Amino acid sequence: MCAFRLIIALVGALFLYTPGALNAAPGIGGAHPSATSCGSCHLVGADVDPVQAAKLVASQEVLCARCHAHALEFSHPSGFSPRRRLPAAYPLDWKGDLTCSTCHLTHGQEPGLLRGKKRAREFCLDCHDQAFFSTMKDSGTSLVISGHLDIGRGRGTIDIDAHSLHCLGCHAGGHAPGGSVSVSRNGVLRHASGSAPHPIGRSFREASSRGRFHPESQLAQKKIKLSDGKISCISCHEAYKKDHGKLVVSLDRSGLCLSCHAK
Length: 263
Ligand code: HEC
Ligand code: HEC
Ligand code: HEC
Ligand code: HEC
Ligand code: HEC
Ligand code: HEC
Ligand code: HEC
Fold this sequence. Notes:
Largest sheet: 3 strands, antiparallel
Distance between the termini: 44 Å
Radius of gyration: 21 Å
Helix content: 10-25%
Bound molecules: heme C
Low-confidence stretches: 1-29, 152-157
Structural class: mainly alpha
Oligomer: single chain
């Protein structure tokens, strides 16, 4: 278990600090997973071509779970033979199983590594009909955001505050209506639009002690709220207002940012 966590940490570190490493995989330029030898998955090793690619040394439920242990819990079923025909855009593996690569392009480039252009509900509706979701109590809204409920990617390694978790419930993964966000392993929030990438879930007091920030006691006066002392979605966005998602302070001349950061 410890060794496993260490591997995750190392791989995470590679992704975070040397983006160039992403481009190091030979043959398939810039592909995930970059830090692993081809032979750990492909029977023929580094010389693999598209024809040989399907011959893997184990099932994907085993190979991928080495790094994505949670992708099998509270997730879409994977590793079984469907009893009905699925659209050709979602290929089964050589055993005829619906598996990770039925939905994902392992060596893809797009965020989420999904096949095709459809996301969220539209993606699900390629294989399921509307009636499949209509019978669910929440019409499937809690599921269609992803193939997995493990929305906090860094679960276990970062401690996201409760308010951010609430927002992530609708805004994480895929193309959430209103805009999607993701949180990377080091706790950095990224908006799909590229706006204001920012650490969240960190203690303001602790983090601000290392930099130039206004004292925590002055934040309230500047309309900034913390969630249990932590930087959160609700530090920048209104949480319980008619104006859903409005910024708490205008971005004009970096007003929002300078409410916490000191020049
Ligand atoms: C974690 C396991 C894993 C590793 C490591 C891996 N691959 Fe793959 N690769 C896959 C899977 C899964 C597929 C999809 C297989 C299928 O279609 O049945 C795939 C598909 C491919 C394909 C077919 C085209 C495509 O993109 O789908 C090529 C080519 C390929 N891999 C090359 C490589 C090379 C070169 C490396 C080493 C740099 C590598 N792979 C490392 C799992 C892996
Ligand atoms: C050697 C470790 C490793 C292996 C093996 C591995 N992955 Fe990953 N994968 C990663 C890392 C690291 C990331 C980036 C995670 C992050 O920062 O959120 C990632 C990201 C992903 C993502 C999300 C991409 C995104 O941009 O949101 C998907 C989907 C994924 N992997 C699927 C797979 C599948 C399917 C397999 C098996 C064929 C696989 N992974 C095998 C390490 C691995
Ligand atoms: C590539 C086709 C495909 C896609 C895309 C797909 N599914 Fe499925 N899903 C299946 C198949 C096949 C089954 C097995 C049951 C069946 O045949 O409907 C299944 C089963 C399920 C089940 C389990 C039902 C149960 O209780 O036994 C749920 C829930 C589900 N899918 C939800 C989703 C959601 C949500 C999405 C979108 C994120 C999605 N599916 C996308 C093919 C797909
Ligand atoms: C029925 C389709 C489906 C299957 C099967 C599936 N996934 Fe996913 N997966 C998704 C969707 C949809 C997302 C959300 C992608 C997005 O839009 O960001 C996702 C996201 C992910 C992510 C990134 C987000 C997260 O929660 O960490 C990883 C990693 C991942 N999948 C790995 C896997 C692995 C490993 C397998 C096989 C064991 C697998 N998936 C099987 C549909 C699927
Ligand atoms: C129950 C689901 C749900 C939750 C929870 C949720 N949102 Fe949203 N959010 C939405 C939807 C749906 C939209 C799109 C509204 C529209 O475009 O009409 C949206 C839009 C937004 C927008 C864009 C507004 C704009 O002007 O375009 C922001 C910013 C936002 N949400 C932030 C947040 C924050 C911060 C939280 C947590 C305090 C949060 N959301 C919680 C569903 C949700
Ligand atoms: C450091 C401040 C900050 C934090 C923290 C923050 N946001 Fe944002 N957010 C912004 C800014 C700035 C914009 C762009 C607004 C604009 O351009 O008018 C934005 C835009 C958005 C949008 C609109 C779509 C987009 O991609 O621009 C959504 C949705 C959103 N944020 C959700 C969230 C959620 C959910 C969280 C917490 C997980 C969060 N934000 C945390 C500053 C922040
Ligand atoms: C709630 C107060 C708060 C607001 C509002 C805020 N920040 Fe920050 N920001 C911080 C704190 C505290 C850190 C240090 C986090 C850490 O080190 O873990 C930080 C870190 C950063 C970093 C990471 C680089 C570094 O030196 O650590 C950047 C970039 C950044 N902020 C930009 C912005 C921008 C741009 C805005 C406005 C859109 C903004 N911040 C709004 C409190 C805030």
